[in-house]
Amino acid sequence: xxxxxxxxxxxxxxxxxxxxxxxxxxxxxxxxxxxxxxxxxxxxxxxxxxxxxxxxxxxxxxxxxxxxxxxxxxxxxxxxxxxxxxxxxxxxxxxxxxxxxxxxxxxxxxxxxxxxxxxxxxxxxxxxxxxxxxxxxxxxxxxxxxxxxxxxxxxxxxxxxxxxxxxxxxxxxxxxxxxxxxxxxxxxxxxxxxxxxxxxxxxxxxxxxxxxxxxxxxxxxxxxxxxxxxxxxxxxxxxxx
Length: 241
Hints:
61% of the residues lie in helices and 0% in strands. The chain has 13 helices and no strands.
């Protein structure tokens, strides 16, 4: 993982372009990471036993709390069906019943089916072969699979495949908005590129950073009430005028 010195050199070497908020964002993101890691330590995320379990979790995590995902994954594991072949050959109705705790279970069952068909069709069912595909190419392919959007694709690439791509979620957006680092119109790809431009291309760093931001979003930077005085990123807030 990138060291403090590497993060500092990365920030110092940036050719900063764009609006003032973007310029500040590119400079401050390495500092955010250092403050969070010093305060919170390693997060050991993503919690899963296998890369395929990561992928299933990423699909089931859409629009639900992580506890619901864990219950659905556990049901698949207990049924001995937490494999690409098991999911592909399972009747759709049974799969939907097993993943019911994750919510939107009928749609998510179809998404899981779509992914395992894609895996078999494009890579002979081999995750290892899939993850040997260059990042940009594989990302385009994943985005063509039913039910896989940018956040899910990037979670698969980073957490299951160890590809150097940053995952942007609602927590990340909320934190950056409250710090005045992006505006409300900033899109997923814009925010992702800003992180990747300001940090070394290190999947372990991206993994840890995203997990730290999730911790902040759940604990302090909540949707309705922000507990900024308690947050490790509180000192980075600019005074309001």
